[in-house]
Amino acid sequence: MSEYRQMWADLGLDLDKHDALLAVLGQAYQDVYLSQEGRPEAMGYFDFVMSEVHGLRIEELMDAKAQGRPVVGTFCVFVPEELILAVDGVCVGLCAGADFGTEAAEAYLPRNTCALIKSVFGFAAERVCPYLAAADVLVGEYTCDGKKKAYEELTALHPAVWTMDVPQVKDEWGTERYRRELRRFAGQLEELSGREITVESLRHGIEVVGAKRAALQRLSRLRQAVPSPVSGLDGLLINQISFYDDPARFTASVNTLCDELEARIAASEGVAPASAPRILLSGCPMAVPNWKVHHLLESAGAVVVGEESCVGDRGTQGTVVPEGDTVEELIDALVERYLTIDCAIFTPNPTRARHAQAMHREASAHGIIHYALQFCGPYQVEATGFERTLEAEGVPVLRIDTDYGSEDTEQLRTRMEAFVERIRP
């Protein structure tokens, strides 16, 4: 990727550290993904995206900036991409899935901070994430106390950090608060871009994002087939790439893959035997390159058939119904859809367990892994009631608390192999 070195230098990246990061990630991708057998041919597109994730895609972002289009970096599915597209902006997810720059991050954060937050600071402080460097603005949402306070410190590492409050209770007051936040966010985007959000431009944004969600929902349904036509690793990867790639190009590529998967299903062709234990993941989001749990499970002979996660079905559930003749009415439609997301920040939050139970049933799964990052209070606390609810319905649950490091790999492997044998049909 030598042709991109000047671009990285212009972005202020530490080239030596960036080279080291790419070497590690490239080898990990080879070992985890390219070593899989029987992958669909259409996965070649997503392999290409990953090979150029710090190259061609960053070049596209820089071209967009040169055209006066704002690049908006986000951390969470509660920041509506529809509004960013409505000002002809580009929405990208940010680096937050690897154990990198821990010592540098701890100059800003306490040691007992969740791995996702610490990863963001590590990438930023070590200057190795071109997405952070290319973004005109970062939008941090208040989905937990850790993030809320961390965004105050993030201003030391990026010149423009916006924040967005997210209600913790789904009542009329919470709905009105979120509505006001989206209207404020729309105004900020208009000021940043110099473009007005119109009914037509917002409808276009809703259409583009709706098509992407529909393609991912189609993929989710196809993963329910027995035998599974695609690995859980590849399903996770596609959901991860959805936060980085051009939305129209990504949507077309997912639908091309789904066409191939339908043919595989018709031919009863799967990536694992029909008798393989089928597992649903539920809990914290998994950002690139957090592939540890899926890799361990599928190496143990199981197949992951879905993710009840922000990087998965929770992030794509629901549809924005673009009814209304004004921008305000369309924003109300966004509010209605986004507040169907059953993130653990909400209290009470009974719908997440019900959603996971429905996914488990529809995918003919044999058990659920509840995955939480260490020091993630909302998901770790909610895990107890989640497990109790699901096991009362006869669904086996294994709770895992981990981080992005490799120190607990063998312990996790032992626990997962035992769980796979426990649920084996």
Question: What does this protein structure show overall?
Answer:
The longest helix is centred in the middle third of the chain and has 24 residues, at 199-222. Strands 2-1-3-4 form a 4-stranded parallel sheet, with helices on both faces. The protein has helices spanning 5-10, 15-34, 43-51, 56-66, 81-86, 102-105, 115-126, 130-134, 145-154, 172-193, 199-222, 232-241, 247-266, 292-299, 313-316, 327-338, 350-362, 377-392, 409-423; strands at residues 71-74, 90-93, 137-142, 161-165, 278-283, 303-308, 367-373, 397-402. The protein starts with a helix and ends with a helix. It has 19 helices and 8 strands. It is α/β, with parallel strands linked by helices and 425 residues long.
Helix share bin: 40-55%
- State the shape: globular
If you average the pLDDT, what whole number results?
96
Number of helices: 19
The strands making up the biggest β-sheet line up spatially as 2-1-3-4
Measured distance between first and last alpha carbons? 46 Å
Structural class category: alpha/beta
Question: Which series of helices and strands comes N to C?
Answer: HHHHEHEHHHEHEHHHHEHEHHHEHEH
Taking the sheet with the most strands, its summary is: 4 strands, parallel
What proportion of the residues form beta strands (DSSP E)?
Answer: 5-15%
Radius of gyration: 21 Å
Residue runs with pLDDT of under 50 for 5 or more positions: none
How many runs of DSSP E, i.e. beta strands?
A: 8
